Amino acid sequence: MNKIETISKLKKEDKMTHEEAVEFYEYNTSNDLEIKLNTLIHGDALDLLSKIEDNSIDFLILDPDYQDWDKLNESGLMIEAVRVLKSTGNIVCFTKQPFDYNLRNEIDHIFRREIIWSFSNGGAWVSNRMPLVSFQKLYWLTTSKNFYIDVRTGLEYNEGTKSMKRTNKVFGGYEAEGKQFEKSDEGTWIRDHYHFNKPQCGKIPAKPEELIRILIKCFCPENGIVLDPFFGSGIVGTVCKNLNRNFIAFENDIERVELYNTNSGLF
Predict the structure, then answer these.
(1) What does the DSSP assignment read for 29-85?
(2) Angstrom distance (rounded) from CA 142 to CA 108
(3) CA 207 to CA 80: how far, in whole Å?
(4) In Å, what is the CA distance from 164 to each residue of 8, 159, 183, 184, 187?
(5) How far is residue 105's CA from residue 25's CA, in Å, rounded to a whole number?
(6) Which is nearest to 95 in space by CA: 50, 119, 65, 133?
(7) What is the pLDDT of residues 228-245, one digit of tens each?
(8) N or C, which terminus of the chain has less Cβ within 10 Å?
(9) Is 90 exceeded by the pLDDT of residue 100?
(10) Torsion over CA: 82, 45, 118, 242 (sign)
(11) pTM of the prediction?
(12) Which domains does the chain have, with CATH numbers?
């Protein structure tokens, strides 16, 4: 859309005055747009992503509406995500069946591992001839082998977990001595499957705070920058503040942006 069409749309759909719509358009189309840390920025995710400097982000969390993955990738989302990512950075994409297939093919060249998030509540109905969908997928991506990772999640061990010497492992005719296992003060080792129930938090779907905490602690260094272009419930901002990480976040709903930025990071 050109300037006139965009301003007209802002006035009609977002109920802006003409002056507000012009100011918003000029602000968001300027190449000098200042991307402020730890505030929610109003605008389209792809448009704003294009204004972020190359190699400046430590960790991207991509959690759009899953049915939009094909459209977003056709519009260059993953290309922009890779552009802004540091060589040591990580990307995590949230998805679920049946939207995972094309996404998995799109990111095959930078794919590192799949993490499963399962839940007992909120299973999604698909059809009368299909099982309820009770898990979602997280695709972990990196652009180099020099990626940052802290393998300790900070989660406590199960009550029955004890230090022990593992049994020997036998591979064909070769036997390897079992290693000594010791509990770490920094918590459990990161896993490829977590079970957390979906939060019950109103109209905006949210991811479990415990899951987001694991991802940010393990994939972003302290004082690093997390980019969340699809801010949604705002849980990423909350966790970043608690873990001493910075964040950049985008949101299309102007009322939610103003509410968040004027209410100390709360909706």
Answers:
(1) H-TT----TTSEEES-HHHHHTTSPTT-EEEEEE---GGGHHHHHHTTHHHHHHHHE
(2) 11
(3) 24
(4) 68, 14, 9, 13, 16
(5) 35
(6) 65
(7) 999 988 999 999 999 999
(8) N
(9) yes
(10) positive
(11) 0.83
(12) 1-30 (no CATH), 35-261 (3.40.50.150)
Q: Is the C-alpha dihedral spanning 189, 196, 235, 205 positive or negative? A: positive
Q: Residue 261: its pLDDT value, please?
A: 87
Residue that has been written with the tokens 């977003």 in this structure? 72
Round the average pLDDT of the chain to a whole number and report it: 89
**In 3D, which of 195, 236, 233, 238 has the Cα closest to residue 215?**
236
∠ at Cα 207 (113, 83), nearest 5°?
50
Per-residue pLDDT reduced to its tens digit, 200-223 = 776 777 899 999 999 999 999 999
Residues for the chain: how many in total? 267
